[in-house]
Each structure stands twice: as structure tokens, then as C-alpha cells.
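Researcher: Dear colleague, please comment on this protein.
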Amino acid sequence: MTATTAFLSETAPRQTALNPIEHVAAGLGIPAGALYRYGPFKGKIALDFATRAASAPVGRLILVTAISPTPAGEGKTTTTIGLGDALRRAGHRTAICLREPSLGPNFGAKGGATGGGQAQIAPFDEINLHFTGDMHAIAAAHNLLAAMIDNHLYWGNALGLEPASIAVRRVIDLNDRALRDVVIGLGSGNGVVRQTGFDITAASEVMAIFCLARSLAELEQRLGDIVIGRDKSKRLVRARELNAAGAMAALLKDAFAPNLVQTLEGTPAFVHGGPFANIAHGCNTLLATQAALGLADFVVTEAGFGADLGAEKFLDIKCRLGGISPAVCVIVATVRALKMHGGVALRALGEENVQAMAAGCANLLRHVGNMRKFGLQTVVAINRFAGDTAAELETIRQVCAESGVRAISCEHFARGGAGAAALADTVAELAESSKAFTPLYPDTMPLEEKIATIAREIYGASGIDLESRAAAQLRALTEAGFGNLPVCMAKTQYSFSADPALRGAPTGFTLPIREIRLSAGAGFIVALCGDTVTMPGLPRRAAAEGIFLDAAGEIGGLA
């Protein structure tokens, strides 16, 4: 849980008895015959039913994003859950759409991804660990392709693949920095020796395809579109030329059906797909979102990390592809993050604290302004923590009011949906006057200009610095016909810049672009900025050190 120190007064009794998953499904009109149970509290929605629901959207979509976070996170998932519970308490048929947790953060530094306090989805231990096996299926499908590539090289390389051009790395759903760069094929009879590496599963192109495909047929087609490398004549070689797409789709068939769980208050929650937002596109599956929109009046979803990352990608990639549009954008802020962006210690006291709050609000206001560039109705949710003072909260409200945006203090961690009632009322009101959003850039804009537009308009950069390799890669992709694709920026989540230590709302910096990767199956390119890596490492003291089984076989220490 990323908000364990949140506001704890007036804590409501914790709900310990979950509803049977059939009861949760029935609340959305999902019949028992369209539900496949994974134990009493988890289920998958039959694919044909989910597809029919997705074809007739009736609900309004609420996007929850955040300011640039502290390493502990600011409670974006907790706010998504609390808002969903509050809308349901207000009488609206509501569903929540979240990403599946990755084992990397669970055993690393950030912890789980099921919310916190009274605003959680459950069963949290099962969701945070193996859940319904989707992450394993995605990793297996990806690694099958990697194995088939190396097997093809071993048996004569009929396609003439250049080993140095192979773009498919292997994946694992753990943080393991030792696997970033490896040499494979060593030893007699073990294949072609070549340098490669591992990414975390959340950064896999198969994960992105899984989250953007809308049918099994589209899933298989996109898997076949994956570019695995170039042949000796520099022609792009795709996965379908290895006859890999069918087997990969078979591994993903059951996983592709959306997962259904519930909050502690019984609100239905679709938890499906799990790309990170700093190194991937940061959104749950399009199928789950569209199915939820066909079943609920309000669908509350989140986009990972700050609005400069998750929300921009949600709008420019997911919404562009899926033809969906959020009615309202909620930006989560905390006093601790605003103090950090204001340049003082998080535990600073007194007047210095309030002054830091005002300075740190520049980061918040840039995120608000960015969402307005898309034409979105926006509201700020202040995720209240125990040590927050009335003066600090009032400072945030005043600064936001001067910029024409409402800031609402929320206590959902301590009080569940009741603690987000005011936020729910505001969201419902704003949704009545919502308009379709406007993407930041058109498809026809050149790739380099798309990257520069994001850097300038969203990050506040004065320009970009394309390393020579990245510039050559962009030229090659444009010549190969990929110039109309959207861009997925891989960048630190802690700053608008590529420097995690550059906080607040910096301007005048240059954004370094070191590498461009093609995700032809997913339908976007990835621009790696600065020192960003696609395989995280464990911290000095990993969260895994504190996880255990007690005498009764219950899991403890899973945060």
C-alpha cells in the first residue's frame, strides 16, 4: 500500500466479508453463465460477453492521474478506488478499471498496487501476487517468441536475420538489474552467441498488444506484426514469418478475458493488463475499459505515475486507438509531494512548510494546465495524510482557485467512499458538461516533431537533443512507413525533465533522447529519454525481505 501514513482519524470499521464474485458480477448485469470463477472472490468475464458489452458503451469515463510523485507514490490507485466507491454510494452504477500489479514493485521498493486503508480492492494478497495468471501468460508468450528467434538462428537462419539487429529481448516479471545485458548461446551446441538482455514484463511489447487489442483476432494479428529484426538486405522481419503468432495467441487466450474483483465496499473492479507508465504506456486493457463502459454509468480508471506520463499516453495512445474520451480528469496531489517539489524536507514545520506548499504547487498547476490543453474538465483531489495541517490544505485550495480549478480534500483512505463524497459530487457535476478531448498532435505530424511537441508542451522543455543513433532510428522508421505512429515516452516519473532530481516545474531544459524502439504490433514507437532503463533493479533493502508465511499459511508483510 502506498498510502499507509494517510489520514487516519474517523476510521470506519473495515469490511472483512467480501461478496461472492457472482454477486458483484450481477450488480453489473453479468449473468452467472458469463463468469468464470477463480475461487470465491475472483473471476473472468467470458470473452464473448465482454466483447458485446464493449460494442455498446453507455457510461462516462473518469480518468485519475497525479502530480509528479514521491518514490512512495501519492495514492492514485487509492483515490481511484475511493472515488469509485463514492460514486456508487451516490446511487450511480459504477465500475473501476485498474492495471494488474507487477511482482517487480511488490518485491522491490514501491509495494503493491491494490490501494490502501479503506480504499482497496480485494483479495489484495492474491491480486498482488499471481492473481489469475495473466502476467505469467504474457511473459510466456513473449519468451516463446524469443526462443523461436534463437531456434531459427540455430537451424540455419533461412530468413537471413542479422543477429545484431534482433530487437526482441526476453522478459521476467521481477526487478533484476543483472539481466539488463546478457550474452546467450555460450557453450557447445547452445545456439548462436549474441548479446541481448531482459526487460520487465510490464515493458514487453506483448503486454502493450494485450492491452490495446480488442479481439482475439486482432490480438493474433498484432502479435504477428511484431518486428523482430532485419535481414541482410535490411528488410524488416516480423513474428508471423516465424509462424509464432498463433502459438503466442494460444498462450494468451484465457488471459485475454477481463478479470473482475471488488473493492472493500463491493464496487466492481476490472483489473486487467499491467504496463508501467514510465517505460510503457501505463493503461489497463482497452477491452476491459470498453466492456465496463457498456455495463456502468461511471467508469473510474487510472493512468500510471504523473499526468505527464500516464495521462498523456492514455489520451494520445489508448484513446486515439480505442475512440474513447474521458469526461473528467482527476489529478491527485499530496502535501508531502508538493513540499518536495517546493524544495524543503518533507517533515519541515511551521511557516516554511506553507511557503514550500505554494512553491510546490507550480508542479501541480503545470499538470492541470497540461490536461486543459487536451480540452479536459479537471479537478484536483488532495489525498489527505495524518500530518497535513489546515493551513497547508487551504494553501492548495487557494492556489488552485486562483487558476480556476477546484481542489477537494479527500479522506477515502480512512473512511472509504464516504471520505470521497465531495469529490464524487464534483466529478458527476463536471461530467454533465464534458466534451470530447483533443489529442496533443495529429497522426501526420513527423515522429521527431511529435517527440519535440510532447517535450515542449507537456514537460516544459525548450527542445530535444537527439543522439545520433536515435536520429538515425527515426529516419529509418519514417522511411519504413511508421511515421504516423504515436509516441510512447520512456522517462523518469519524478520530474518533468529526464533528471529525477530536477523537481517542481522546470523550464528551459533540453530533453535527451538516446534511443528509439519500434513496437509495430502495439502501434507506437518508444523514445527512451536520459538514463531510463526497461529493467528496474531492487533497492538496497527490498520489500521481499519482509514478506513471509505465518503458521496458518497466511501471507504477511505484503504492503
Remarks:
- The domain at 134-252 is CATH 3.30.1510.10 (Domain 2, N(10)-formyltetrahydrofolate synthetase).
